[in-house]
Design brief:
Layout lengths: L25 E2 L4 E3 L6 H12 L4 E5 L8 E7 L2 E7 L5 E5 L14 E3 L2 E3 L6 E3 L4 E3 L22 E5 L2 E5 L7 H4 L3 H9 L6 E13 L2 H10 L4 H4 L1 H7 L8 H4 L3 E5 L5 E5 L9 H6 L2 H8 L1 H5 L6 E4 L3 E4 L4 E7 L4 E11 L4 H15 L6 H13 L4 H4 L2 E3 L17 E3 L4 H14 L4 H5 L10
Antiparallel strand pairs: 1-2, 2-20, 3-12, 4-5, 4-7, 5-6, 8-9, 9-10, 11-12, 13-19, 14-15, 14-21, 15-16, 16-17, 17-18, 18-19
Length: about 450
């Protein structure tokens, strides 16, 4: 028997949903995955409460908040949230849902305000989440305690070198601990400049058909598709127009797989820098070697790719950071920013922004290839025979280890290693009751791992 908490916000509402043991769907020792994980609605609902709700999720960049009252609206899984700077200049994040009837209290993408007022019945909240106005308040009973009906705040919010993350999970480890060994790789993008980073050009948003995991796993591990899917783009970008040289196409490289599900792949050939010439010409690579070390400049800082589990991805050389917001089984909404070093001159920042748009913007020459692949993969997932297929994730299996140069476990660039790591973490979270299930007394003997 469970007891009712004193405050409604302390207890996630809702009738317990069925939980599925996903261990039979992922055989990562043999590198095999059952396609059911991309097409089952019960599993998708389980992801929302056991993968997204307990995890640290990317919200925004610190540079989007310059003064008290600045706000930005986004999502954590499918939950709408407001990120705002309070009068004390502290960043906070709240569920974007009025405590009266659940309507969003803010329907703008971004801006500045002194209060968030629900347009349904007029309940209003200040930037610290406090309920400050209840129309016809005199008609509420004596036991109505207005101070207990503020916006639902995230359990934890923290930043990592400009990136803002939050989690609903009060039991989650600190952000830096949750990033694991990926921090060393992330810093190849985030720590080039003593002044830090900022985002420019706003947020680009578009919708793709496909399960969110397809995009997240690709950015964690999949260099394999580059020479095939992006052949025409590589041809256009090569100096001769005939495509890159063989030693570039078959570039050496490494792929890092973090035990917490993160991944980062990168070539190590000295010419594997398909970046804008203006940006490339501006960098002082000797100074970068002194700051970051040779291994990072010659590896993770090149034309690589990475994912912070579960749904934040980045491309260091393009300055692209993005979130794969889940929108059901078959759809994702991509939100993308262009990240630049603060000390870059304006013309270099603009060159990076334009280059990012041309390559990985919504109409970018690489991005369109990826979107088509994911939609085609998803299109066949609901058939009986095609949906029953076992998928092969065996590339690089058994070849991972310590290479003595890059921290942690790495394998060859052409590998499914980080994807296997991604699904290992996914499986473990899916099979572990989250904090809210324990608090609500929903854990059964069968649920306990």
């Amino acid at each position: 028997m469970t007891t009712t908490p004193a405050r409604p916000s302390d207890r996630p509402a809702g009738v317990p949903e069925p939980s599925v043991d996903v261990g039979g769907y992922v055989d990562l020792d043999r590198g095999l995955i059952d396609r059911t994980i991309f097409r089952d609605d019960v599993l998708y609902r389980q992801e929302l409460r056991r993968v997204f709700a307990p995890s640290w999720l990317f919200l925004a960049h610190e540079s989007q908040f310059a003064k008290p009252g600045d706000f930005f609206t986004t999502y954590m899984g499918e939950d709408p949230v407001i990120v705002t700077m309070g009068r004390d200049r502290k960043l906070r994040a709240f569920l974007n849902a009025c405590r009266h009837r659940g309507m969003r209290v803010c329907r703008a993408d971004a801006g500045a305000t002194k209060a968030f007022t629900c347009s349904y019945h007029g309940w209003a909240y200040d930037t610290s989440g406090k309920l400050i106005n209840v129309p016809n308040g005199e008609d509420y009973p004596a036991h109505f305690e207005q101070e207990k009906w503020g916006l639902v705040e995230v359990a934890q919010l923290d930043t990592y070198k400009g990136l803002v993350f939050a989690t609903w999970n009060p039991e989650a480890p600190p952000l830096r601990e949750a990033l694991g060994g990926l921090g060393w790789y992330l810093d190849a993008m985030l720590d080039r400049d003593p002044e830090g980073t900022e985002v420019v050009g706003g947020v680009h948003k578009w919708v793709l058909e496909g399960n969110w995991k397809l995009a997240a796993e690709q950015f964690a591990s999949d260099w394999y598709h580059v020479n095939i899917s992006h052949a025409s783009a590589l041809m256009v970008m090569s100096p001769t127009g005939k495509g890159p040289k063989t030693e570039i196409v078959q570039t050496p490289g490494r792929q890092y797989a973090d035990p917490l599900g993160h991944g980062h792949g990168f070539p190590t050939h000295p010419k594997s820098r398909f970046d804008d010439r203006v940006v490339h010409g501006w960098y002082d690579y000797e100074a970068l070697r002194e700051r970051l070390g040779d291994a990072r400049v010659e590896g993770p800082m090149t034309t690589g790719h990475g994912t912070v589990f579960p749904n934040f991805s980045y491309l260091p050389v393009n300055g692209s950071i993005r979130v794969w917001h889940p929108r059901g089984l078959d759809r994702m909404e991509v939100w993308a920013w262009t990240l630049v070093d603060r000390s870059m001159p304006d013309e270099v920042k603009d060159a990076q922004r334009i280059y990012n748009l041309r390559t990985f913007g919504p109409s970018g020459i690489f991005e369109q290839d990826d979107g088509e692949n994911w939609s085609e993969v998803q299109a066949t997932a609901h058939g009986f025979m095609a949906g029953s297929m076992t998928l092969n994730y065996q590339m690089g299996l058994g070849l991972e280890g310590e290479d003595g140069v890059h921290p942690g476990t790495t394998g060859h660039l052409y590998s499914d290693g980080a994807a296997r790591g991604f699904y290992t973490r996914w499986r473990d979270l899916m099979n572990t009751p989250a904090w809210h299930e324990k608090a609500a007394g929903q854990v059964t003997e069968k649920d306990t791992p």
